[in-house]
Design brief:
Layout lengths: L3 E9 L12 H22 L4 E8 L14 H17 L5 E6 L2 H13 L5 E6 L5 H16 L15 E5 L21 E8 L1 H11 L5 H23 L4 E7 L12 H5 L13 H12 L21 H5 L5 H8 L5 E8 L4 H18 L3 E8 L27
Parallel strand pairs: 1-2, 2-3, 3-4, 4-5, 6-7, 8-9
Antiparallel strand pairs: 1-6, 5-9
Helix pairs in contact: 1-6, 3-4, 4-11, 5-6, 6-8
Length: 401
């Protein structure tokens, strides 16, 4: 039974003045985050929980990376390198720089952020319902990233692992959509926990056997599993340190038996994931995850269905983008790690992004669109990614979406 902490994520607000010559405030903020994360990691490990990663997410980069007096490519790269070096010194390998709210930043700054070696940075683009300009900018960014072959962290379109078009995102510990909450005080460091629990999900849903028993089993077993984690997190709070909660989402691993889709298939009502019964199961699971007694929750709190991070999803040739989006209407994340043809048009990409944004904004739920145009590969061909974080899959057809 695999149950891990995928991430402990610290949230911090950066300011342009942090990068002023002679200022020590940036180093102080990163070091404070690092101490918090290391303390949390140590206590979780001592309690028997494996912590896979520790991460930092900032406020939107447009608030500190790009200013009226500091917007040249050289200024942007210098700031990114300064932050990159501080993170490296603290051995923090994952940092989300928040979303772009400006289409010009989406097409120019986001690709710069993702190009910085060794691939420590993530970012996103905020998309509101019906915002065609923002969606087209995100599509252009995705295409640009897919064609950037300037390092191992980018080759073959892999850079899009660290970029998403996101809607209604707030206080999510998972990347690339993570950002500091908008109401976070400038002197406050907040943190939240994200899980990796595909094997545990399989155990829970096998025990439930049917949709009608899902809530009882999840409330009982998840509550018992999460209470010790929450107790540690509450104990980490102090002046200037705020605990935001646990993202209770069912999140797959690449381990044998770690598929969330396979876990859903343990229910009597779902013969094959994606077939009839799937939406009912996803809705029941999500409702249960969002209402676990005595647990402070945050983030997506649903069913995570990243195609290239879930071996069962990756092998299901009956799935389409539209099916995944329909399922997301009652659960979590959106269209996630879906491989698509490298020659996809920006217009088609923008249409997919707009569909996700429409669903997110209509129901005020956090959703993102993270797709991978694979250069020189067509629909029906297999991906050949070489990444410890992903498996491979057949490339989806856009016309079937």
């Amino acid at each position: 039974m695999a149950f891990r902490l995928r991430t402990i994520t610290a949230f911090v607000n950066l300011d342009p003045s942090d990068f002023d010559k002679g200022s020590s405030s940036l180093a102080e903020k990163i070091n404070t985050c690092s101490r918090l994360l290391r303390d949390g990691e140590s206590q979780m490990t001592a309690a028997g929980f494996e912590v896979q990663t520790i991460r930092i997410a900032t406020n939107p980069f447009g608030e500190w990376l790009v200013t009226k007096t500091s917007s040249s490519d050289e200024d942007v790269v210098n700031k990114l390198n300064t932050l990159n070096n501080l993170l490296s010194a603290c051995d923090i390998n994952f940092c989300s720089l928040g979303p772009s709210y400006d289409p010009k930043h989406t097409t120019t700054i986001c690709p710069q952020i993702l190009s910085i070696s060794p691939g420590r940075f993530s970012c996103s683009a905020n998309i509101n319902a019906g915002d065609i300009t923002a969606a087209l900018a995100a599509a252009k960014c995705i295409k640009s990233i897919s064609l950037n072959d300037g390092g191992k962290h980018l080759e073959g379109g892999l850079g899009n692992f660290r970029f998403a078009a996101a809607s209604c995102i707030d206080t999510v510990p998972f990347f690339p959509g993570a950002k500091a909450p908008k109401d976070l005080g400038k002197d406050i460091i907040a943190f939240a926990v994200g899980l990796e629990n595909g094997g545990f999900a399989r155990e829970l849903l096998h025990e439930a056997g049917s949709i009608e028993h899902v809530q009882i089993v999840i409330h009982d077993k998840m509550r018992k599993k999460l209470l010790p984690i929450q107790q540690i997190c509450v104990g980490l709070e102090s002046d200037g340190i705020q605990y935001l909660g646990i993202d209770t989402s069912l999140n797959p691993s690449l381990d044998d038996g770690g598929s969330v889709a396979e876990a859903i298939e343990c229910l009597d009502e779902v013969e094959v994931f994606g077939n009839p019964g799937t939406m009912a199961a996803a809705a029941a699971v999500t409702t249960a995850l969002q209402s676990i007694p005595d647990i402070q929750t945050t983030g997506y709190r649903g069913l995570m269905l990243p195609v290239l991070e879930d071996r069962r999803l990756a092998e299901l040739e009956t799935l389409t983008i539209q099916k995944l989006l329909c399922i997301s209407s009652v659960c979590g994340v959106g269209i996630d790690t879906v491989p698509i043809p490298g020659d996809v048009s920006e217009k088609s990409l923008a249409s997919i992004i707009l569909d996700v944004a429409a669903l997110a904004c209509r129901w005020n739920k956090p959703l993102s669109c993270r797709v991978f145009p694979v250069p020189s590969r067509l629909a029906g061909m297999d991906t050949t990614f070489d990444s410890p974080y992903m498996c491979n899959s057949t490339i989806y057809r856009i016309e079937d979406c």
